[in-house]
Design a protein that fits this description.
The protein is α/β, with parallel strands linked by helices. The chain is built from 5 helices and 6 strands, in the order H-E-H-H-E-E-E-H-E-E-H. The protein has a 5-stranded mixed barrel.
């Protein structure tokens, strides 16, 4: 049965759904811009400093790719991640990405600087960005220094050493 009450309930439900979409979109657009050095310092300080970032959507800059973390279920890493470091610290931020981002991860080179967004998860012994996305590459993608030999080709000793 449809009547005025059904129409009002439908309109309220549609309005609530629209508001939640707008809220998510607004959160994505209002990510707090954070220097990687400051985020790592807050994690080390703990307490209120760490809580200021925990669970917040941030845009992280002043970081470079130091390595890559493969998926590892025993360590509860269900997604591939980037090991991001700053020029001032040996500590890292794990930029956890989705499986759909693997082709984009494969294009990155160690030492490349970039800007990423994600939701900060600041723990006592870990610092992660969940749902991490690459916003901007600040260095060009570095070309491979050695091209692989084709099947049946000969390779010189100098090429192998290079």
């Amino acid at each position: 049965m449809s009547g005025p009450r059904s129409v009002i309930r439908f309109a309220k439900g549609a309005a609530a759904a629209l508001l939640s979409i707008v809220a998510v979109d607004a959160q994505a657009q209002t990510a707090q811009r954070v220097d990687g050095v400051d985020l790592i310092a807050a994690q080390k300080a703990g307490g209120a400093a760490a809580a200021a970032y925990n669970g917040k959507s941030i845009e992280l800059f002043n970081v470079r790719v130091n390595g890559f973390f493969a998926m590892n279920t025993s360590m509860r890493r269900l997604n591939p991640a980037l090991d991001l470091r700053t020029p001032k610290s040996f500590d890292y931020v794990a930029c956890e990405m989705s499986l759909q981002d693997v082709p984009e991860i494969a294009k990155l080179a160690i030492g490349q600087t970039l800007v990423v967004t994600g939701v900060a998860a600041v723990g006592t012994y870990s610092l992660r960005l969940n749902g991490c996305k690459i916003v901007k590459l600040l260095d060009p993608v570095l070309p491979a220094t050695v091209s692989p030999a084709l099947s049946g080709d000969t390779v010189s000793a100098n090429s192998i050493l290079t």
